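Thought: the user asked what Cytochrome c oxidase assembly protein subunit 15 looks like in 3D. I have the sequence; next I should run the structure tool and report back without guessing.
Action: structure_tool
Action Input:
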Amino acid sequence: MSEPTQTTPPSAAAPPSALGRGLAAARRWTHPVLVANLVAQIGIIVTGGAVRLTGSGLGCSTWPECEPGQFTAKFHAETSYHQYVEFGNRTLTGVLGVIAIAVAILVWSDRTRTRSYRLLGFAPLLGVVAQAVLGGIVVRMHLHPALVSVHFLISGALVALSLYLLHRSGEGDGPPVPTVGPRLHALGTTLVVLMVPVVVLGVIVTGAGPHSGDDEIAYRIAVDPALVTRFHAASVWLFVAVLVATVVVALRTAAPDAVRRSLWILLAITLAQGVVGYVQYFTGLPWVLVGIHMLGAALLVAGAVRVPLTMRTRATTSADPRATDDVTAGVTAG
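Observation:
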């Protein structure tokens, strides 16, 4: 008789490489790094706004150098603060790039997760590269208002993607299961849809206004600022109406705490944005208030995207060693 073939038990498998062990140990930093990425994506909107609102858009006259023959801002007799504001924003872009690389490595190396989730880890890095290239084009095109507006919209999309990635990192990889009724879930999704024209029209309003990014640039987006402002205000009021309806339905159907909390946060952000928006309009668009409004727009994007994400749960899969005995929450009648 021939001897039975012996198989190697799983416990006797080759141990992971030193690199594998290092990456596994480093993954405890995944959540903090994803939080840092989201904060930095919002922060780059604020510093980019500061560049535009202080008229520092051409503080560095070329790209990727700040000035011909020098990559950094340098003091000399003719130096103004504009050069440092613009170079500071470029420096934060570099920091954001480092964070994005860390996100890509940590997310992609997690072999316990699905391929779709791991590929999502490259989104911040690709976005930063695209923004850096577009930033160079914006400078070389002398702050063309359409390109400046696209610059902001890409940043808004990166905030949304970064918030989604952060939320997904805490979920399992099973199919999404709603934790609320269909009516409330539809309202939450509608909020995200309505948020888009609110932000886009807001960007057009700013592009048509007095803050072009450089004191010597006179041209703007060729639209009537007052008319576009009215459209923007109408989109905001529609968003508020749907948001209030969503809050009411969430309270009446005893939605999960996470859902109600996300709605209250979004309502607070929206009301604050409304107050700042009307005050800046009636006070001649002071740059400080416009900058605060830009920060609020980034927070609005993150807040709106988070709402429908709290209305579902994803169970861990059997292939995921993090699997627990958590029971999927029941669907609340909506």
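Thought: the tool returned a structure. Summarizing for the user.
Final Answer: Structure for Cytochrome c oxidase assembly protein subunit 15 predicted. The chain has two domains: 26-170, 173-334. The chain is about 65% helix and 0% strand.
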